[in-house]
Structure formats: C-alpha cells, structure tokens
Design brief:
single chain; alpha+beta; five-stranded antiparallel beta sheet; 2 helices
Length: 135
C-alpha cells in the first residue's frame, strides 16, 4: 500500500496559505507544473470545509514522495503538466467544481477520498476522514 504524496509547510514559507497548518503533513491531491511561469503548484484540501487550493510548491517540503496509483500525467498542450486523477484533467473540470456542478463535486470527493484511503492511519491529518458532500 502506498502512502501518497505529502508535504509540510516550510518554516521559511513566504506566506502561510489560508487554512493550512504549519506543523501538519498535507496530502497532495494534484501537481500542476507551469514552466512558462516558472512555478509548480500542489493542490491541497485544507480540511476545514474550504476549497482545495493550488499552492506554490516552493513554500513546502516533501515528507512523502510516494505517487498515488490513481494519478495520470496530462500534457496541457501549452507546456504545462498536471499529475492528478484522470477525471480532473477533463477540460473545464475545475471551473465546474468551483461552480458547484454535481458531476465535478462528486468526482472531486470520490478521488480525494480514494487518495486519503491510501494513507496509513498514522499519517492522516485530523480532518483527513473520507467524506461525501451533501449534494
């Protein structure tokens, strides 16, 4: 069983992302690489009911570099790369999720929960309990 990719906010982070604890390991749900902008992002669910955000990878240290088995690599066609569940790579997925469209919300929670289930109990944050939204 893999433990999934996890990161911890660096003590030298330029800014503390909203909702993310400094002394906690956070599950990386997606990696978005944009060489044109010279920055990579980790998508992390804050676990407080807030939206899963993209966070500058330079503000984190990797505490587990295991790759979730459900990730695929998507070439955005413009030099970007995305490592995430296949359904999340569908064009317009994140827009649909943030617009509250049921198909995208269900897909997000399904795959997020699957990644959380891969973690040993000892590595789960207090809020990393798989849960479905009331849709």
């Amino acid at each position: 069983m893999t433990s999934g990719m996890m990161v911890r906010l660096s003590k030298k982070a330029s800014a503390r992302p909203t909702g993310l604890g400094r002394d906690v390991d956070h599950v990386v749900l997606e990696i978005y690489c944009d060489p044109c902008r010279g920055v990579n992002h980790y998508r992390i669910d804050p676990g407080d009911g807030g939206a899963p955000g993209l966070h500058d990878s330079r503000n984190f240290i990797v505490t587990s570099n295991d790759v979730p088995g459900i990730w695929v690599v998507d070439d955005g066609g413009n030099g970007t790369l995305c490592f995430s569940p296949r359904e999340w790579t569908v064009e317009g997925f994140w827009e649909a999720y943030f617009d509250g469209e049921e198909w995208a919300t269900r897909s997000y929670f399904r795959w997020r929960d699957d990644m959380l289930k891969e973690l040993p109990e000892s590595r789960r944050c207090r809020w990393d309990t798989p849960r479905w939204p009331a849709v």
